[in-house]
Amino acid sequence: MSKTTGTKGVSRRTLLKGTAGLAGLAAGSGAITGFPYVKSADAKVLRYLGTAVNEGDDISKQCLKDTGIKIEYITATTDDVTKRVMTQPNSFDVLDTEYFSLKKIVPSGNILALDARKIKEFDNITPVFTKGQTPGGKKIGGQGTAPWKVLYLEGKDSKKFATSATEFVTLIPTVYNADTLGIRPDLIKRPISSWSELLNPEFKGKASILNIPSIGIMDAAMVVEATGKYKYADKGNMTKEEIDLTMKVMTEAKKAGQFRAFWKDFNESVNLMASGETVIQSMWSPAVTKVRSMGIPCTFQPLKEGYRSWASGFCVSKGVSGPKLEWAYEFVNWFLSGYAGAYLNRQGYYSAVLSTAKAHMEPYEWAYWMEGKPAEKDIKAPDGSLLEKAGAVRDGGSYEDRMGGVACWNAVMDENDYMVRKWNEFIAA
Amino acid sequence: MSEEVLQQASPGLIPGSGTARAAKPTRLSPSFISWLQAGPMMLVFLAFFLIPLVFVVIVSFWDYNEYQLLPAFSGRGYTDTFEGCLAQLPDLCTIGKTYLKTLKLCFMVWAITLFIGFWVAYFLAFHVKSKTWQMGLSLLCTIPFWTSNVIRMIAWIPLLGRNGLVNSGLVKTGLINHPLEWLLFSEFSVVLALVHLFTFFMVVPIFNSMIRIDKSLIEAAYDAGATGFQTLVNVIIPLAKPGIVIGSIFVITIVMGDFITIGVMGGQQIAAAGKIIETRVNALQFPAAAANAVILLVITFLIITMMSRIVDIKKEL
Question: Can you tell me the distance from the alpha carbon of A87 to that of B134, in angstroms, rounded to the nearest whole number?
Answer without folding.
Answer: 49
